[in-house]
Amino acid sequence: MVLLPHWPYAFTRDPDGSVRATRWTSEGALEAVIQPGFYDAGGVVDVAVGPEHPHWVVETSLFQVRWPLGFSVASSHDPEDHTPFYLRGPGEATIYPQGPVPMQTVADPYALVGPEQVVVDRRARDGGSVVELAYEHDGTPWWQGHWVVPFGTERCLVLTAQSQRSHDAQTRAAAEEVATSIRT
Asked: Which one of 50, 67, 99, 173 is least enclosed by Cβ atoms within 10 Å?
């Protein structure tokens, strides 16, 4: 199936394999539960016949990635936010792509390290790199990772993932799945 959202939106996979679609309007939230063979979502989301593969993907106009289990897909509600999508998960986890940007934008090894963040790991990965950081926010330990993924010869996508440190393993695994699955 293909689910074409109406902005702003959120999709959540239910344990039974269905997808709960939410669309926010000036009158409030509208919801529909999409199951295989169900193609009328009442204006919440457009539903069409899609590819025959055993996993969900999130598609943008430039690339697609696998939708990791345990994470919802959502848009921002802010019309000024041009991030194509956010993946939301447990422990306040958020994964989102940025770019493509010129490679030189992230050439400095500390370009992705913010104030009060400590580098806990840095490694090369498939022509790009990963940097993992630790920090505190409102007294809670947090983890953040940035995957720099080549996008052509001169540009890259930056995939940022963060969560409370208690959920870093699940968030890291989901971010790695997303980074590994990027297709143009």
From this structure: 50
Q: Is the pTM of this model over 0.85?
A: yes
- Residue range 113-149, pLDDT digits in tens: 999 999 999 999 888 999 999 999 999 999 999 999 9
Q: Give the list of residues 6+ apart from residue 126 with CB closer than 8 angstroms, or none.
A: 149, 150, 180
Residue 175's pLDDT is 98
Q: What is the 3-state secondary structure (H, E, C) of the chain?
A: CEEEECCCEEEEECCCCCEEEEEEECCEEEEEEECCCCCCCCCCEEEECCCCCCCCEEECCCCEEECCCCCEEECCCCCCCCCCCEEEECCCEEEEEEEEEEHHHHCCCCCCCCCCCEEEEEEEECCEEEEEEEEEECCEEEEEEEEEEEECCCEEEEEEEEEEHHHHHHHHHHHHHHHHHCEC
- 100 preceded by a cis bond (ω within 30 of 0): yes
